[in-house]
């Protein structure tokens, strides 16, 4: 059978075409493959499952066979957003766009990796740094069972709200959304701030003008009262906007007082528009996928200590892992998201920085913890590979008095990060089946200490650590990233690497 595979009109990053070719080889095992006039030609053996396999491809606009033209399901999903495919992929199809989340990776990459690994509906997948649930949602859309783990309760909240949304008829979400918006106007007219404030309310009033505080609290009560089992969908949709109406500078990852003007559009109008857009996405997606999908889940737990999570995971259970872990001195996820965390009641205000300090890759160090890791780095208490320990010591010895307190902490932070990732690799290994693959997408980093630039090759370091605790390194592939803009663009990761490991 001769098939012609046509590329989309958008501009591809080099790795996307490379992944596309790897997918074709993994899924279809072609007898011949060649490119002509920017069209990929493949020769296949005739078999009953060819059409089904062609429909699973991620990066092609259409496929012409000798008998028909196939538009892959992925293309139909990407057009759900109502935007024509122009110069960039649509990544917010289905429930993927319900809430912004820093560090989120493209769902197309997840789907492509699932294809590379030949993961099917009988497989089980794990994402030990699941964030807002990109991997487990993409698995759901392929009807693959998956579980996500994350230490951030907001990430878990968002990920599980997505799972509720994909298995709920869009018309039902629309009806409840309309009821919420209608109830708001009556509720806000009589809403008053309680005379005695809780710790949560006191904190929020420090970060929201009173009128906006009243609006988000009124909506929170309405959602709680009328949204029933769908309430978390609407909490998440509103959470996605509350920072824009706060006294926190919206464009800054850190908590800093606002200098930019407030939005001119009323919050209720923005919220209503986001509900309507989400409903359109879900309706179109459900017309393509249906409601018969795997209902996956995200669990609030630490991938460094899975042995403490009795009854959650089984040994020799997972057929594959796909994740995008943090890197050393990573984004301040908790600090950035503290308003949503407190507003949703997921964490008391006083525990924000404690949780931030517990994250793998965190920049936060309390004095007692810092002293503990100063002792560990000297003797390599965590027993990371010797070359990596020596590199951390080199960073430590390069410090000068001109380095500020954040740079002074970099060697210890890197050592702690490598030790934490080693714990993760070691703890996960028993839960994978023999020969099961584990894909990680991680960014590179750099720092300047004592006036000298040091490139922190996190992907290479992680490969060394994984091998050190028993994984096999199968492949590493560079992934280019889009140009980042905004207040933090100088700190954005410029390139990433896809690491593929395998359990022996």
Report a brief summary of the structure.
This protein is of the alpha/beta class and 504 residues long. The protein has helices at residues 14-28, 50-55, 73-78, 107-116, 134-141, 153-166, 170-189, 199-207, 210-226, 231-242, 267-289, 333-336, 338-343, 352-358, 367-379, 386-397, 405-408, 410-428, 458-468; strands at 2-7, 32-36, 39-43, 60-64, 69-70, 124-127, 145-150, 297-300, 320-323, 437-443, 445-449, 452-456, 472-480, 495-502.
How is this structure best described in words?
- The protein is α/β, with parallel strands linked by helices.
- The chain has three domains: 2-72, Alpha-Beta Plaits (2-Layer Sandwich); 107-166 and 294-502, Rossmann fold (3-Layer(aba) Sandwich), CATH 3.40.50; 170-289, no CATH class.
- The protein is 43% helix and 15% strand.
- The chain contains 19 helices and 14 strands.
- A seven-stranded mixed sheet has the order 8-7-6-9-10-14-13, sandwiched between helices. Strands 2-3-1-4-5 form a five-stranded antiparallel sheet. Strands 11-12 form a two-stranded antiparallel sheet.
- The model is unreliable at 482-493 (pLDDT under 50).
Looking at the structure, the CATH topology of the largest domain is Rossmann fold
E-strand count: 14
CATH class membership of the largest domain: Alpha Beta
Estimate the helix proportion, in percent.
40-55%
Principal-axes geometry comes out as globular
Please state roughly what percent of the residues sit in beta strands, choosing from under 5%, 5-15%, 15-25%, 25-35%, 35-45% or over 45%.
5-15%
Keywords: Methyltransferase, Restriction system, Transferase
InterPro entries: DNA_methylase_N4/N6 (IPR002941), SAM-dependent_MTases_sf (IPR029063)
GO biological process, one term: methylation
GO molecular function: DNA binding; N-methyltransferase activity
């Amino acid at each position: 059978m001769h098939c012609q595979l046509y590329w989309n009109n958008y501009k591809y990053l080099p790795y996307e075409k490379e992944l596309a070719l790897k997918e074709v080889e993994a899924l279809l095992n072609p007898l011949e493959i060649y490119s002509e006039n920017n069209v990929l030609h493949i020769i296949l053996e005739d078999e009953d499952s060819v059409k089904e396999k062609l429909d699973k491809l991620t990066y092609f606009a259409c496929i012409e066979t000798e008998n028909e033209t196939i538009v892959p399901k992925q293309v139909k999903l990407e057009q759900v957003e109502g935007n024509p495919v122009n110069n960039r992929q649509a990544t917010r199809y289905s429930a993927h766009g319900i809430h912004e989340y820093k560090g989120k990776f493209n769902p197309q990459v997840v789907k492509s990796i699932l294809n590379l690994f030949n993961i099917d509906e009988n497989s089980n997948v794990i994402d030990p740094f699941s964030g807002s649930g990109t991997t487990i949602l993409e698995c759901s859309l392929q009807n693959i069972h998956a579980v996500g783990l994350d230490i951030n309760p907001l990430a878990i909240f968002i990920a599980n709200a997505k799972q509720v949304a994909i298995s709920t008829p869009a018309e039902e979400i629309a009806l409840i959304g309309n009821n919420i918006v209608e109830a708001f106007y009556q509720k806000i007219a009589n809403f008053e701030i309680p005379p005695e404030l809780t710790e949560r309310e006191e904190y929020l009033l420090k970060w929201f003008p009173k009128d906006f505080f009243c609006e988000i609290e009124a909506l929170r009560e309405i959602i709680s009262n009328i949204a029933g089992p769908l309430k978390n969908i609407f909490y998440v949709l509103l959470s996605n906007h509350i920072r824009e109406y706060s006294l926190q500078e919206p464009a800054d990852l850190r908590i800093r007082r606002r200098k930019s003007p407030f939005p001119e559009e009323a919050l209720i109008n923005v919220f209503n528009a986001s509900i309507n857009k989400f409903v359109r996405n879900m309706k179109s997606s459900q017309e393509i996928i249906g409601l018969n999908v795997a209902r996956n889940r995200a669990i609030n737990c630490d991938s460094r200590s899975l042995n403490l999570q009795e009854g959650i995971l089984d040994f020799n259970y997972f057929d594959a892992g796909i994740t995008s872990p943090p890197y050393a001195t990573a984004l301040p996820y908790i600090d950035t998201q503290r308003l949503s965390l407190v507003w949703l009641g997921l964490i008391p205000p006083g525990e924000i920085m404690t949780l931030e300090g517990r994250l793998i890759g965190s920049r936060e160090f309390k004095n007692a913890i810092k002293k503990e890791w100063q002792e560990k780095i000297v003797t390599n208490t965590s027993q990371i590979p010797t070359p990596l320990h020596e590199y951390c010591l080199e960073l430590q010895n390069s410090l000068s008095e001109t380095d500020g307190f954040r740079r002074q902490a970099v060697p210890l932070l890197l050592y702690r990060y490598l030790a934490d990732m080693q714990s993760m690799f070691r703890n996960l290994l028993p839960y994978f089946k023999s020969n099961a693959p584990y894909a990680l997408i991680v960014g590179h980093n750099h720092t300047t200490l004592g006036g000298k630039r040091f490139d922190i090759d996190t992907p290479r370091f992680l490969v060394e650590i994984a091998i050190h605790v028993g994984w096999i390194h199968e492949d590493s592939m560079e992934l280019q990233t889009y140009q980042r803009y905004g207040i933090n663009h100088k700190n954005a990761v410029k390139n990433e690497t896809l690491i593929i490991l395998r359990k022996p």
